[in-house]
């Protein structure tokens, strides 16, 4: 990539002048190559009504960043272990409460002002929920509350403009609700709602306590899916739904972006109904924001 910083004249967003002279800043070029490998193991155990899921993952990450302008080379080589555990209990009524814990690891490319490579972003999540499958019904209802923390986020370096440091931390708390079921043998419906409270808990640039940008507090969707049960169009499925994305904040929380409701649709066809040798192959056409 090619990077440079410099001044530019002001511009009126309502009556922009795109022909203003701009002094080209000095730039430097950099080539970044990264690799990530992971090994994942999971086991699920059940004893009577109790179920336990345990999983572990080891990641290896390496990168090489060459600054072609200054002739410097920075390398990274890191590894990390992350785990997940979930414990649930199944009642005869179809109610299954559970508790879960999960960790995450995400490589962060680049270097700080001192030339040192950034550390990976780490996360941990606690979740408490309940699932309910009514006996004799093809339906599933779920509800969950969660607390998610992300560490090592990039934030502005107050001592070196244009560079970042990893002193940022963000916390997401929220509620997720979902209901899905088959109204008939051919028609199924899915509805979901999410409430998010996501703020910076640590930051060097004055964002501490503010909402993360472009992350809405409210999201919801309703989706219906119909599969033709027989006849000439057997194997054809049609789906449509509405997504609601609530208002979100700008990077400094000085203004909000209004919420929107979007319509999506899909068509799926099982080729095995027209050509038995193609059993298992499907054709999908998806449309977003109709």
Detailed description of the structure:
The protein has 290 residues and is mostly beta strands. Helices cover 0% and strands 61% of the residues. It is built from no helices and 15 strands. The protein has strands at residues 2-4, 27-47, 50-67, 72-89, 95-106, 121-132, 139-156, 164-182, 187-202, 218-227, 236-245, 248-249, 256-257, 260-270, 282-287. It has a 13-stranded antiparallel sheet, with no helix packed on it.
Q: How do you describe this structure in short?
A:
Helix content is 0%, strand content 61%.
Q: Going across the major beta sheet, what is the strand order?
A: 1-2-3-4-5-6-7-8-9-10-11-14-15
* Overall helicity: under 10%
Query: How many β strands by DSSP?
Result: 15
- Stretches where pLDDT falls below 50 for ≥5 residues? none
Question: Main β-sheet: number of strands, strand sense, barrel status?
Answer: 13 strands, antiparallel
N-to-C order of helices and strands:
EEEEEEEEEEEEEEE
Alpha plus pi helix count? 0
Shape designation: globular
The assigned structural class equals mainly beta
* Chain-averaged pLDDT: 92
Gyration radius, to the nearest Å?
Answer: 25 Å
Strand content: over 45%
């Amino acid at each position: 990539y090619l990077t440079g910083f410099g001044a530019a004249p002001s511009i009126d967003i309502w009556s922009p002048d795109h022909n203003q002279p701009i002094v080209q800043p000095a730039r430097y070029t950099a080539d970044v190559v990264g690799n990530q490998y992971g090994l994942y193991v999971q086991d699920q155990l059940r004893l009577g009504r109790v179920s336990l899921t345990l999983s572990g993952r080891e990641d290896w990450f390496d990168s090489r960043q060459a600054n072609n302008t200054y002739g410097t080379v920075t390398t990274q080589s890191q590894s990390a272990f992350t785990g997940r555990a979930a414990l649930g209990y199944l009642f005869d009524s179809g109610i299954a409460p559970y508790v879960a814990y999960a960790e995450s690891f995400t490589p962060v490319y680049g270097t700080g002002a001192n030339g040192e490579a950034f550390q990976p972003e780490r996360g941990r999540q606690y979740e408490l929920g309940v699932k309910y499958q009514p006996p004799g019904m093809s339906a599933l209802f779920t509800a969950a509350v969660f607390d998610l923390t992300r560490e090592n986020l990039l934030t502005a370096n107050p001592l070196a403009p244009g560079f970042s440091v990893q002193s940022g931390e963000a916390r997401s708390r929220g509620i997720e609700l979902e209901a899905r079921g088959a109204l008939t043998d051919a028609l199924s419906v899915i509805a979901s709602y999410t409430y998010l409270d996501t703020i910076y808990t640590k930051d060097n640039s004055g964002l501490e306590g503010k909402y993360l940008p472009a992350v809405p507090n409210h999201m919801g969707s309703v989706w219906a899916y119909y599969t033709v049960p027989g006849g000439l169009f057997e194997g054809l499925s049609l789906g449509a739904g509405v997504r609601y994305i609530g208002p979100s904040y700008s990077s400094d929380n000085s203004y909000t972006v209004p919420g929107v409701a979007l319509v999506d649709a899909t068509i799926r066809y099982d080729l095995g109904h027209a050509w038995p040798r193609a059993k298992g192959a499907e054709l999908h056409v998806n449309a977003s924001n109709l």
